[in-house]
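look at this:
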Amino acid sequence: MVRVAILHGLISCLPPIKQYASAVGIFKWPALQARSILNGNGCLEYRLSALLKDMSQSNPLIEKATGKNETIPFARIEPEHFLPALKHFKEEAQRNVDSIVQSAAEPDFENTIVALETASEELSHVASIYYVLFSAHATEGIQKIAGEVSTFLAGFSSDVTLNQALFQRVKSVYESRKGVQDSEQARLLEETYQDFVRNGASLPEKERETLRQIDQELAALSPRFSENLLKATNHFKLHITEAGDLAGIPEMAVEQAAATASEQGLEGWVFTLQFPDFMPFMTYAENRELRKQMYLAFRSRGMGEAALEYGQPEGTDNRPVVLEILKLRESRAQLLGFENHAAYILEKRMARSPQNVQSFLDRLVEASITAARQEQKELSDFAVELGYDSVEPYDIRFLSEKLKQKLHQFDSEQLRPYFPLNRVMDGLFGTAEKLYGLSFKKQEGIETYHPEVEVYAVSDASGQDVGLFYVDLFPRQTKKSGAWMTSFQEQGLFRGQVRRPHIGIVCNFTKPGKDRPSLLSYDEVRTLFHEFGHALHGLLSRCTYSSLAGTNVYWDFVELPSQFMENWVRKKEGLDLFAAHFETGEKIPPELVEKMQASETFRAGWGFMTQLNYATLDMAFHTTPAAKIQDVEAFERQATEKTNLVEDAPHTCFATGFGHIFAGGYSAGYYSYKWAEILEADAFELFEEKGLFDKESADKFRGFILERGNTEDPAVLYRSFRGRDPDPDALLRREGLLKSA
């Protein structure tokens, strides 16, 4: 995901997980974010004393980097450095908070709000480094301390937001507006005050302590969910020894499976549940029984002992974790005066309320369900032609691809030779140059957390520094699945200066082979452009205060820049910047692009319903009284009865692997993908009218969307860009579903 690294969080598979793991000030993250995205053993005890090193020894996390970029010294950082550094900077942050509280000066914007904004910046910086490693390079040492990091930070967040003397100073400035000079300062004041209130500052003392305990417990549960999911994903391996069982699978996927087997000292081929293995296998493998094995293993992740027959490891049961998270979220929301968790979350979203979200989802279901049912009937009829007696869930991707080839004479794998990674990266940067005048120069000598990570210096048309861009594209066992944008350093006020950002994207793409480059699938190219959209949102930010900068926006707005960027992959003019055959250099043929475009709306109704099914489940979990949810699997089936068009096998459950809402930042927010799709479809219609690289339109999008962060209400920013509110039919028009509305 906002997109986890908004994580502030992330991500984020399905649609790629966005992990904004950037810490953005005292309130913006520990209690709300750390518990959402960390992964670990859930330990509630601080074993700091056993891990603290003598402070006279060098700790690279405590030593402040110097020089132009002040980059992170990854080569010198060890897992045991984190807890001492966090403790050190927590003490520093607490001293800063105490200074605010003890000040004899009348509270004003500068001595209270700005002082608070920067009070924990070093603590947040160290935490953001931990999150980068936890998500992208989680060694055993990093995973081992995850629970302690999470609860440690959640505890400090509670200490701050429940500090009554501090709250009274914030409230004083909120009521007096003393020292507020512009709209961005007014926005920061509003957000700071609301953060206090939404985290219990107005509650009576007894209820504040209850809230503190809830936050501590939640800080341990989401990490446990994430750890179980990661273990289940890494545990299952499909080992194939007969070449005949590879029929239909693309050559690149077979080659990668052979390399995986060799790495594990095995003969034959090994397929994992990582997307570069799983998706080609489910789409192309002729062996139906093996597709079934792969599907059931994937769909039962997090079911633990209940799904041992599907290859799940013991000790990875997320069902009790889900139930406990739901109970605690509900208790927390009700303690703060909300009916349920969804109502609490949506108060700070464009949608505003669960009722508005449900109306939004209902309209999209109404617009797409007829088409989806017709598409499913067509698939069933086609399956009969191929000799199938039924269409099972593990058949759908395979049969859909076959039917697409029949109807459109198009196979997505035909595109892969035109997408060598080096050229796609050139196209990515070329698109940003044509739209926004940016240039990207690869840097040597900047330390990274893994040898595969590359770093680019970004500058604008006038040669001014924009920021640093880190790129990490290939899967490994220490990396979570999916794709996300992350932040190493937020744009905005840091160490007394308004700094340029250090932003990264992390993906799990097809690796290079022995004798060929990495050739991306069309979906991987779209994912890369998607995450790059998030990265541009972070890189082009021009705000004063980091907690308002970049992707720190409402979660149903954060996907606008990312989904918007995908449009340049759909158009021939955009593809011509980079799509060329890896052997001959021939540009992608127009007829192939036309076939691709014709297939874009193939089974659009089904695709809509799949995403609406996930969003419906999310809202059901967070609006239904927790006491009424006793069986996660049974509740999922009941809650999605109207949106789920295919019955799944027993002991499979999407919820136990639904990291977006139980280990990401999308709880009561999964609808935001579709919400933002409407915004981006409407936004892109302007470029279709004016030209794909129209400078005036690009300048408006940059100026009102990419640069402004959360300095103004997103609805206002969008109207400033477009000159009007978004047309809700824009997405349905693009997907060919308007006639079904």
The first strand starts at residue 10 and ends at 11. Confidence is low (pLDDT under 50) at residues 2-56. The CA atoms of residues 138 and 329 lie 27 Å apart. Residues 354-385 form the longest helix (32 residues).
